[in-house]
Design brief:
The structure is a single chain. This protein has about 425 residues and is α/β, with parallel strands linked by helices. It is built from 15 helices and 13 strands. The longest helix is centred in the first third of the chain and has 21 residues. It has two domains: about 250 residues, Glycogen Phosphorylase B (Rossmann fold, 3-Layer(aba) Sandwich); about 160 residues, Rossmann fold (3-Layer(aba) Sandwich). Helix 2 runs antiparallel to helix 5 and helix 5 runs parallel beside helix 7. Strand 4, helix 5 and strand 5 form a beta-alpha-beta unit. The strands form two sheets. The protein has a seven-stranded parallel β-sheet with strand order 3-2-1-4-5-6-7, sandwiched between helices.
Length: about 425
């Protein structure tokens, strides 16, 4: 079986858990006899291709001309970034203006046929434009490999349009993989409707939808109106190969409690800060670390200052690779207070290094982890009690450390990939 897979990132150059999951998944699929062609916007050339063949979309010219492609181009115009909000324009003029802009956008895309796009592969201001162009390149690649592939697999909203185009032009079944939704990234009244529209279109066009947890599966069904028969939950795993046992010198006698992840609304960083302040009132010989970056970082720094705990609270910025492993080696407790977490790989990484973990009940990994302490993200009293207990009761910490380590080591990507392969097979039988 051969799969054409669309993803936005792949190790070692990743911004979060999506690339890590894709890496582990492709290795697991290879172990299950599935060959993967992995298309990413901008490959650096140093990606691990031992279990996957990487296609760099930046190296592929858009040279496919057909009626189907023209139809496809007509469907991608809505994702173009930019605002049509103009004051003092009546409804008729506004409609005319929008239609002219739509035609201009489609024309600009057509002009680029035969050219290569140099994708950044980042998440910058022109992200929507890159998503649309990536879709066109993806359609070209799909046609080039039409006779080789059995299934198309697209990861998260950034690649759904590419998956839709590939399915339209090849007739191959499409599986979309939901690692997060708009409702995980923001509150219900603040979601990006452009992203939501892309997510919904991808899920509706797919033959099967894979969600990373039952939590995410329920969101897909209830918030996007997708039939339950079409949505399958497959929990993520963790690939620990290549990990080193890192020894570090702490330099301080204080215990260390760590938050590691994007400093955004979704991850609940302010709840971690509030819990830290409560712990420090009971147990002053503790250091709290927030490792990560994001749009709430400055706000969190100010919050720490207002609470008067700056001398016990440290911000490291974004960590990657061995820096993450070193941070876990320095930690006595790991905390993931996410408001909404489709799965959450970082607690598994912490527990694999014998770090006892406190996680929010509003996370996908809470469905499968027995030896992590679980609290509601908003209950900072319960969160602080859990942290305090792990810091001050060695027997509890030792049990969580030992059993947690054994628990996550049993979560293999080969097992998760076997379930994904069955999803592929179900689409091919239709």
């Amino acid at each position: 079986m051969k799969v054409l897979m669309f993803g936005w990132e792949f190790p070692p150059h990743i911004a979060g858990g999506l690339g890590t999951a894709c890496y582990g998944m492709t290795k697991g699929l290879a172990a299950n006899g599935v060959d993967v062609l992995f298309v990413m916007p901008s490959a650096s050339g140093d990606e691990d291709q031992s279990a996957v063949k990487i296609i760099n979309a930046s190296d592929v010219p858009v040279d496919t001309m057909s009626t189907s492609v023209d139809e496809f181009l007509g469907k991608v115009q809505f994702v173009h970034i930019g605002s049509n909000m103009v004051p003092y324009v009546d409804p008729q003029d506004f409609t005319t203006m929008v239609e002219e802009e739509r035609k201009r956008q489609i024309k600009s895309f057509r002009i680029q046929y035969g050219q290569k796009y140099k994708f950044s592969g980042k998440y910058g201001a022109n992200l929507m434009e890159e998503v649309a162009r990536y879709a066109m390149v993806g359609a070209t690649i799909a046609l080039q490999h039409k006779d080789e592939i059995d299934v198309i697999h697209a990861h998260d909203w950034l690649t759904y349009l590419a998956g839709i185009g590939a399915k339209q032009l090849t007739g191959k079944p499409l599986v979309v993989h939901v690692h997060a939704t708009s409702f995980d990234r923001a509150s219900d009244d603040k979601i990006d409707t452009r992203v939501y529209d892309l997510e919904k279109k991808g899920m509706e066009a797919a033959d099967k939808v894979i969600a990373v947890s039952d939590l995410t599966r329920n969101i897909v069904i209830n918030k996007y109106g997708i039939s339950p028969d079409k949505v399958v939950a497959v929990h993520n795993a963790v690939d620990f190969s290549g990990r080193e046992n890192i020894e570090v010198e702490r330099g301080v006698e204080d215990k260390v409690v760590t938050f590691l992840g994007r400093v955004t609304y979704q991850k609940g960083p302010e709840y971690f800060i509030e819990a830290a302040a409560k712990v420090l009132k009971r147990c002053p010989h503790v250091r709290f670390v927030m490792a990560g970056n994001g749009d709430m970082l400055n706000r969190c720094i100010r919050h720490v200052a207002r609470l008067g705990i700056s001398d016990k609270f440290h911000f490291t910025g974004f960590l990657r690779g061995k820096e993450v492993q070193k941070m876990f080696a320095l930690s006595d407790v790991y905390v993931m207070p996410s408001i909404s977490e489709p799965f959450g790989i970082s607690p598994l990484e912490a527990m694999q290094t014998y770090v006892p973990s406190v996680i929010s009940k509003q996370s996908g990994c809470a469905e499968i982890l027995k030896y992590a302490l679980k609290v509601d993200f908003w209950d900072v009293d319960a969160m602080s009690d859990a942290i305090y207990g792990l810091l001050n009761y060695p027997a509890i910490a030792a049990l969580a450390s030992r059993c947690g380590h054994d628990e996550v080591n049993a979560l293999k990507w080969t097992n998760a990939a076997a379930k994904i392969k069955k999803v592929y097979e179900s689409t091919m039988r239709k």
